[in-house]
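Residues determine shape. We examine one folded chain.
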Amino acid sequence: MGLLRRYDIDSLGNRDPELIDWLCRWLCPLLERYFRAEVRGVERIPPGPGLYVGNHNSGLLTPDSFILGGAVYRVHGLEAVPYGLGHEVAIQLPLVHQIVVPLGAVRASHDTAHRLFQRGMKVIVYPGGDLEAMRPFRDRDRIVFGGRRGYIRLALREGVPIIPVVAAGAHATFIILDRRNWLAPFGLDRLLRIKVWPTTLSLPWGITLGAPLPYLPLPTRILIEVLPPIRFDRRGAEAAGDEELVGECARQVETAMQGALTRLAARQSQLVDSK
């Protein structure tokens, strides 16, 4: 991994197993201690190709993603650690690019996911994208996918199980005061493919407008649970093109994830109150 190296974000050959091993052995345990993290349900992860579906937190920081990866690696090894389908703008940011691409980040596309599934690999997606990663603090315990259902079509077309992953607490590492599309009047929302431009309170920057700068995360407690895999009876291109079926499957996944997030958030509050 070079500080100035640029990678082909459509390539499947960028992942660095030695870097992943080092991070899982050293960085992930530090994150677990800092955030007093708990990860449950890792034993539910099935072998073979699968699509992890997570709720997106903390802007670009996403400490829960690293904590999850470390827990998965310890129990199942490298093959269960997912490649990440990432927003092409986000994963090409300086320094972010040099870190996340060797960990397995690739440009989000169904073609890339297909090639990974063909190799028997797992993939993770955050359907809420910037909409959920930049949701206001008051909505931190809500699943916010914004009607995005491409992940369902992908799972149906490829015939792979969805493995829901829910994190509570990770969106409290900073505070988003509001979320508006300040970019729209200038046409930058289409250029950057970003629909929200939040007002954020973080350390050490205080109140800032726009995509959050790298910040010092508040030591919130993070609870993560891997839910039982969801498999759909119908699969293939015809199933993926059935909008009624896609809607039913999306409601099934999002209902399960919201139920888990509500339960984890309640437990998190209990742990705080018991101190």
Summary: The mean pLDDT is 92. The first strand starts at residue 38 and ends at 40. The chain has two domains: 17-173+219-270, 175-216. The radius of gyration is 18 Å.
